[in-house]
Each structure stands twice: as C-alpha cells, then as structure tokens.
Amino acid sequence: MSFSPQFLDELRARCSLAGVVGRRVKLTKRGRDYVGLCPFHKEKSPSFNVVEDKGFYHCFGCGAHGDVIAFLMQNGLGFPEAVEQLAGEAGLEVPTASPQERERAQRQLDLQGAMEAACVFFAEQLTAPAGRAGLAYLRQRGLDDATIRRFRLGFAPEGREALKRALAGKVAESLLVAGGLLRQPEGGGASYDYFRNRVIFPIGDRGGRIIAFGGRVIGDGQPKYLNSPETPLFQKGRVLYGWAAARAAAAQEASAIVTEGYMDVIALHRAGFTTAVAPLGTALTEPQIEELWKLAPEPILCFDGDSAGVRAALRAADRALPLLRPGLTLRFATLPVGEDPDTLIMRQGAGAMREVLDAARPLGEVIWTIERQVHPIDTPERRAAFEQRLETRVRSIADKMVSDNYRRYFRDRLFASLAAERGSARPRTMAPGGPRRPGAAPVQFVQPMRPDPRALFLRRSQEVIFATLLNHPALLDEVNEDFAQLEQLPTDLDKLRREILNVSALRQDLDAASLRLHLSQTGFDRTVDGLLSPQVYAYSGFARPDVELEEARRGWVATYVELYRRGHLAAEIDRAERGLADDMTEASWAQFNALREHRQEPEDDAEEFPSGGRGGAH
Questions:
Q1: CA 397, 402, 408, 413: dihedral to nearest 10 degrees?
Q2: Is 444 a member of any domain?
Q3: Tell me, what's the pLDDT at 586?
Q4: Which of 56, 76, 272, 405 keeps 20 to 30 A from 224, CA to CA?
C-alpha cells in the first residue's frame, strides 16, 4: 500500500515516539532525549537513544535506527499494518490505495525483507568456518566484536550459490535478482551469487534499513571493492555510507565529515567522529551534497594530499558551487600524504585526526589556492585568463548574494596577491629612513655591492634545476640520484630538496599541482614562489610548466652537467692553488694554468648561463 508523504508526516507528528517505544523498552529521560537498553540486541548498559523532537531512535551498539513506523516494523509488523495501527491510535483515517499502489508498496517491502535476510546470512558467515579469512582481515584492521556488530559486517563465501541456497524457500529468487544479490547471465542459465569471497559492508538508507552491500575482496581478486548494482531500493549517487548513524549523532552535534571508504568511516566513528559518512565509490554528487547539508551547514570533506585528492577536491567544489546558499557551504581538510583517516588514527591517534579537521579550509580558499598554484599571473594575459577562470566559477553560483560575495572575495585575494608581489619586487635605491624631509641633509644613495659572478652563476643554476623539477616532477624518477647529490646548496634550497625527495619517495603519481600543494602545506611557499619567478625563467625557458617534458629533461641535464663541471673544476683549481703554496714547481704551475684556462668563467654581469642564456626564455 502506498501512502502520501504528507499523510506519513502527519502520522509521525501525531505519534509520540517515546510513547510507542516505551511500551517495549524502559526509557530514562536524559536531557531532552531518552535512553534505554536496546530491544534489538543484548546489552548491559544502555546505548539505545530516542530523540523525541527529531522523531527517530538510534542504537550506538548495534546501529538500529529509524522512526516510529520503522520501530513497529522491526518488531514484526509490515509497513501497511504499522501505519494502520498508528493511524488508529492517532485518530487519522487511513487513505485507500489502488491495487497497483498496493502491489508496488508490497514489492518494496519484499525487497527490503530480502536485503535484511541477506544481511543476517552474511553476518552469520563471518563467524563460521567459511568466513575465517574475512574475520582475520577485520581483526588485522583492528576491529573488535562490538564494532563488527555495530556496523553489521559480514562475509560472502567463495561458492557461486552459497547465498542462493541459504535463502531458497525463504526469499523468492526473483527478489534476490531484483535486489542485486544474484546475477542472471545475459545469455541465460542459472543465476549465481553477486558477492563471493568478500568482506561485506551493509549499506543502509537514511532510516537505517539495509538497501545494498559493499564487498571487499579477500586476496588479489578484482575489483578490490564491489558495490551492489542499482536497484529499486538503491541509487548509489543518492546514498551515503554511515548515513543513519551520522544523522543520529548530528542531532546532538551539527557536524558532518566526508571521507572515501567504508573502513575510514568505521575508523572515524570508533575514534569519536560519529558524523562521518562516505559516498559509494563515486565523486560526491549534488543529491549527496544536499543530504550533507541536512546534517550540518558546513560539512568537512577529507581528501588525500596527493594529486588525486586535489582533483577530487576541485570536482566537489565545482559540483557544490551551483548549490551554495547563504550559510550552506563545504570545508576541505587535507590529509598528510600517504595517509587516510583509518591509517592516520591507527598510527597517530584521534588527536592527529582532530588537527586535520580543525585545519579545514573554506571552499573559496580551496578554489583560490588550487587555481593560484597551477596558473601563474606574471603577465597581463595570464592574469586575465586567471580572472576569467574564477569568474566562470562565480557565475555558476545560482544564489546572487553568495555569487556577489565570492566575486568580491576573489578580487580582494587577487589585489592582495599582486600588491605583495609588487612590494617584494620593488627595488630599494635609497638608504633607510624614507624620503628626504624639508631641510634635511641630502639623501645618500647606497652603492650596492657588486655580486660575485661565480656565486651568482651557482645560485641561478641551482634555481633553474629546482624550478624545472617543480614544474616537471615526472623527471624525478630519472634524475633523483643526481638531484640528491647536488653540493653547495644554500640552507633554503637544501631543506626544499629534502622535502621534495621525501614526498617523491612516497608518491608514484606526483604532478606539479600536488607537489606545490604539499610544499605549500609544509611551509615552503616563499621559497617556491621565488623559484618560479620571471627572474629564474629568464635563464631557463625549458623550466616553464608549458614546455614538453623532453625539452625540460634536456635543459635540466645540460644545466646539471654544466653546474657539476664548473663546481668540479673550481675544487680542482683550489687544490692546485694550495699545492703551489707548498711546492712551487714548473709542473705544479703548468697544472694550475691548464685548469684555469679550461674553466669558462661567466662574465662579470653573470648573464652567461647554460642552456639558453638570455635567449632561454620560452
């Protein structure tokens, strides 16, 4: 039987959830809510909560969740019977339904019954001999029995018909196929189990009813993770894993945390972050964003600090922008490179995760930072293109007030950035003390010291080497050893080198955007900005981000060879010069002169640089 949403809302509003639950559970009032022993699993201390003003119950022990109708259904009544009973108590007349509506409603209930039966089967298999490998995997990941029960984890045996045989005679095969539990071969033939040899993660709707499953393969099978196919109950772009428990927790604390996987959600809940949810193997969708805003006005999205994380953050930002409304937005937390919430909490504890969440940045700042790190603004044309990209994003925001504020925010950031660059580039030609005051003595201009051309050549060559790798980190695989052995680096570049080598050792898919983001997060912003400045590019067109990788490789190698050769010769000359002081012979004098003639000194203006000189700008 089908009932209108308006009728069901009126029914829920008229029925006291605490009154209905209180017939079966001894409830104790605690603040505005009620607590008691859960009627759905055995427990000694109360973890069953009734949130009367929000109209739902939730058990933090076994995960049971729902409204007043769901409570009666979990106690044995069908959906129509539960509605009719509550309507009679509330004095509401039950609307009549057409035969087609009744058939459709019954089909929905039958499907939910099939999913629940499968969930029970999978849970039983986890502790049976067939589930030994699955249970060992969960133990290895640090899960205890209470957590396994709370999230109703299970195991799908390896055989092709284990679930099919177990539910034969209890659930119609057609329902198991319709629910995505059995797969029907396209060319005909007997159906077989969809999930096999996998740890099972039940997926619930917002009311906690099981509507699908996720499976993690044991061993080397593919795919590693497998979700139920879409069914009348399950559309993965509209569902969040951990939804029901997060709704219950958000009633007490208006927050929401979005991560990527099942184990991350479970780890966060165990560590006390009980509003954690995850999309189901896809990028965050518009319906999921709207659901998140029902939990909290500013959900925090946790992404890895690698290039994939940067791309995921930008995709989420682009999908959220058209939906933004006053007070509703997203925040972004970046995890340390190589970590996810599960591993971070396991290695460093909940405090480390709290630090990551507390450092979450607003949506506008994330868009600005990513665009600014990828796209330079060192010429009028590039600056115009940069502004155009930001304006395109601003125009995608439907709400005019929010759109206007984003436009103002980006303009302010651009003005501040340009002002900072002008300030750092302004030459200092006068002595300290500012402009001359009336009657004061004439200003004495400071005569700058002429830099040592050899020192300037060394520094510029080193900067070229770094700039090329910052824009083309794919070269690190080839030149890693040479880069690690560079000598005579100043302190700032030596620290930067160590950080680049560290992150490249952890990351196999490092690109320029993710490398810059990582270096920004580890305090190297000023050093990196100096290396990617027009002054450095003037000597190394090949170092720019828009050149082909092969051209960058040739330029890097030529610069490195020239730098190494000059450094090696300088050391040889120093040794020969010291030898002359100890033993002035004709042979030692000839060796000293030969080395000096072999070295090609840069001119005093330090413009003779390898790989392009003045013409190297691309």
A1: -80
A2: no
A3: 56
A4: 272
